[in-house]
Amino acid sequence: MPLRLELKPLERLIINGALIRNGDRRSTFLIETQCKFLRESEIITESEADTACKQIHLTLTVIYLADDPAAGIDLFFRQAGELIRLMPAAAPQIAAIAEAVEAGTFYPAIKLGRKLVEWEAGILAQALPAGPPEPGAAA
Q1: pLDDT tens track for 19-65
Q2: pTM score, two decimals?
Q3: Which of the pair, 139 or 11, is modelled with greater confidence?
Q4: Which residue, of 34, 70, 118, 139, has the fewest CB within 10 Å?
Q5: Termini Cα distance of the chain
Q6: Counting Cβ atoms within 10 Å, is residue 5 exposed (0-12), middle (13-18) or buried (19+)?
Q7: Which UniProt keywords apply (predicted)?
Q8: Angstrom distance (rounded) from CA 35 to CA 15
């Protein structure tokens, strides 16, 4: 059974390492064979990987797309160990990702990595001081 993908205008998609950009209209694709693919929304670029959890997500993406993921897997476990050392509260999520990586189910590991990035964003948002009051707001 083919997998149906809908792409927004100008949305990018990686299929087996090839970067494809959709045209200026919504498009539908049917993938009829086994392949590795990622939508643009699932990808974090090197320039965007500015936090520990985003770097882990990037590493998971590299593992998934690689023909030989061994080096990426080693990097993931080093990054994961460092993250747990710095943020012990991340341990349960890292354990779930590590389980997926060890099982060779790299796409689900990416999905868990996205949840880790969202968790980190929530932690960082709580840690930042509130901005200045709105003009005209009661003090």
Answers
A1: 999 999 999 989 899 889 898 888 888 999 999 999 999 999 999 99
A2: 0.83
A3: 11
A4: 139
A5: 61
A6: middle
A7: Bacterial flagellum biogenesis, Cell projection, Cilium, Flagellum, Repressor, RNA-binding
A8: 7
